[in-house]
Amino acid sequence: SITADGRYAVGKLTYTADLYKETQALWDLTTGELVATPGIPTKDMAHENKGQNRFVNISADGRYILGCMSFSYLPMDDYAGGLCYYVYDTETDSYSMVGFNDDPVFSWEAKADNMSHISTARLSNNGLWVTGSAHIIKEVEGSSFGTEYDAPYLMNVATGEFTLFDASEDADKGGWVVDNLGNVMGASPISNP
Q1: Residue 28's pLDDT is what?
Q2: In terms of CB atoms within 10 Å, which of 26, 130, 146, 169 comes out highest?
């Protein structure tokens, strides 16, 4: 992802022979140098640093960056996994997690009921909104098997407000794009595009 003026780009660097290990990268394309990003998260939902931290999107003005940690560690049963997304503010060197209140010691608190983890995330062009798909797990009355599906969400970056669209018609959909006003465009089934 590149800023509108072509100055900055974000992505990842693999720094060992282990291709699952990577670190986030913010490049200044005018100098060819990496830009420091102090204040990014270093621990995932399992309170571990698994050596997987990448930048996914950058806002047009370069202020906000969407990042992903521990992409190959999904939650299972009592294991928190690690997969999580965050928005990094380059002006304040701070971040906010997408869909969860992170805690350095205890289990993270989901901002919506029955939410296991954020499966995908995308940043609006102005950096003020995030959408994607959240993985939902619900018990089914009278059955020993629950139901699992993805549903779209919307996060306001400025306020942290998180809205999960989890009505019956929202199951197996995901937010693929969000515009600068917070309008989510989605697709079904979630495996589309």
Answers
A1: 98
A2: 130
Residue type, 71: F
CA-derived radius of gyration, the chain: 17
Give residue-wise pLDDT tens across range 136-172. Answer: 999 888 888 888 899 999 999 999 999 999 987 777 8
Other CB atoms within a 10 A radius of the CB of residue 32 amount to 7
- How far is the C-alpha of 58 from the C-alpha of 27, rounded, in Å? 11
Q: How far is CA 135 from CA 10, 148, 180, 188, in A?
A: 26, 7, 24, 15
Token pair listed for 144: 């020993």
Q: Residue 190 is encoded by which pair of tokens?
A: 């979630």
Q: What's the mean pLDDT in 58-71?
A: 97
* Residue 40 dihedral angles phi and psi, to the nearest 5°: -75, 160
- In this predicted model, what pLDDT tens digit does every residue of 85-125 receive, in sequence order? 999 999 999 999 999 999 888 888 999 999 999 999 999 99
User: For residues 152 and 161, is the Cβ–Cβ distance under 8 A?
Assistant: no
**50 contacts 73 by C-beta, under 8 angstroms:** yes
| Structure tokens belonging to residue 33 | 């140098």
Is there a contact between 41 and 32 (Cβ–Cβ < 8 Å)? no
State the pairing for strand pair 115-123/109-110: unpaired
| Residues paired with 123 in a beta bridge | 130
